[in-house]
Fold Glycerol dehydrogenase.
Amino acid sequence: MQKVFISPLKYVQGEGVLTNELRHLEKLGNHFLLLCDTFVYELVGEKLQADLTKKGRQVTPVAFNGETSMNEIKRVSEIARQNQVAVIIGLGGGKTIDAAKAIGDTLDLPVAILPTVASTDAPTSAISVIYTEAGLFDRYVFYKRNPVLVLVDTGIIAKAPARLLAAGIGDALATWVEVRAIVKNNSETLAGGRPTLAAQAIAQKCEEVLFANAEQAMLDCEKNQVTPALEAVVEANTLLSGLGFESGGLALAHAIHNGFTAIPGPIHALSHGEKVAYGTLVQLMLEGAPIEELNRYVTLYRKIGLPTTLEDLNLTDVTYANLLKVGELATKENETSQRVDFAVDAKKVTEALFAVDAYVRREFE
């Protein structure tokens, strides 16, 4: 099978770009649908609409309902169709971004992604995670093209809660762990081919940047400061991880995240990246990674507030039967867990979910 590498047409990152670099957005069309939730609209969306209007562009704002479901995608697509918009803007976090990409694909319109947090690697990809109305993982959906523009204002991201930056670090730290597993097994990536050398190099660089800068970036974010460390982590969370996971591949860590949707309760107060982070520890344990590597991840996680125990996941009293549901969903046919070179089944995943918890509590508490 051939190698495939895909990416957005343009990525722009820096402090103030959502105000000073709107030329990148303006040239895409004359009528924009602006998708964001009410909080984000009040925070930055209203000003963005005003700035684009001053430039002679028409903007139709639509409030996102909070869930990337097929019903929401159909609802907003119909609004976009009725208003004859030319470009879809996704402004906000991961689910808003995924919905915007889905709407753009439905209508065959270009999509611009303007993340207000660096909590996921969704902005650059031609993929969305679709959920049911109840918030259960449904499926991945793949699109004809990546966003035409990703515009990342680090001044806005620095003002977001530091926990969201940590979640992005958790999501991004899975990138190299999963990509190398795909390479080892010669598996297919989400881009539809084998990993390129470029994707592998980007994924490995992502891990390097995060271990070097994560702690400082978290401190800077807590002070709402844009610094070289914060810029580096935002780029790793957004661009390096985004290119790495899509053209390098997803494996067990993300499958476990999807598996967590099988159980109800307070675990869902955690973000995507926080749940992926625990999945990465499980993958490291199941693949037999050196204990020094596992410890390195656990140590960084604990310093920046990522989950390392079941208690951290709000699963203190979880039963084997409930975690088995996680294992079953994580290892179902066609899940990315099937792309690793070691044996995985529902029982092995369930036992590893408990085993990571037991190991961390014994060695780190």
